[in-house]
Amino acid sequence: GEGFDQIEQRLNVSKNPDATMVGHSDMKDPPKDQVQQLIDLYSKGQLQEALTQASNLLRDYPNSVVLYNIVGVSHKGLGNLEEAIEVYKKAIFLNPDYADTYNNMGITLKEQGKLDEALTALNKALSIDPDNAEAYYNIGNALKEQGYLEEAIEAYTKALSVNPDLTIIHYSISSIKTYKADDKHFLQVQK
């Protein structure tokens, strides 16, 4: 993963007030318990099973951006990067204002070595959700890979300003900077 594999947070499952309603054909997303089962499969590393089940559910919920994101991250985890990108494009078509899709696409584009495209997608995620710590973190990773170390540190610092408890970001900053023993990031990494 690119840091925090908190797909449940990334997919904002709990923000769907209709997710517990069963049997409504006009619903965009499947019931919350079905989505949670997919998240559990993904979290346990059962990516093929998550992919299969989410793809099957898309037949009943063809407009579910959440399902498309699960299919996409599962494809990415299985190394099917082109398939993941295509799935994210479908999700963006369905809902161009869903920041997590752009974040997921950015991570996948970065893995493909398409760093400029990755940064475009990640910045789009931030334009939709300016408090998206994961997008800042992923921007930092892409900038670091491009050799823009000061800009990477800025992105990591913004991520920490949104969520100061993300230890992975302290590690990322410490991989760029050389610290004195009393530096706050160095001390956080030592905990």
Give the topology, please.
Blueprint: H1 7-11, H2 32-43, H3 47-60, H4 65-77, H5 81-94, H6 99-111, H7 115-128, H8 133-146, H9 149-162, H10 167-176, H11 184-190
Helix pairs in contact: 2-3, 2-4, 3-4, 4-5, 4-6, 5-6, 6-7, 6-8, 7-8, 8-9, 9-10, 10-11
Quaternary structure of the protein: single chain
Rg to the nearest angstrom? 17 Å
Total of helices? 11
Residue-averaged pLDDT: 85
Structural class designation: mainly alpha
The parts where pLDDT drops under 50 for at least 5 residues are 1-26
Tell me the number of strands: 0
In terms of DSSP E residues, the strand content is: under 5%
**What is the N-to-C order of secondary-structure elements (H for helix, E for strand)?**
HHHHHHHHHHH
Judging from the principal axes of the Cα atoms, what is the shape?
A: elongated
Share of helical residues: 55-70%
Biggest sheet statistics: none
Tell me the distance between the termini.
22 Å
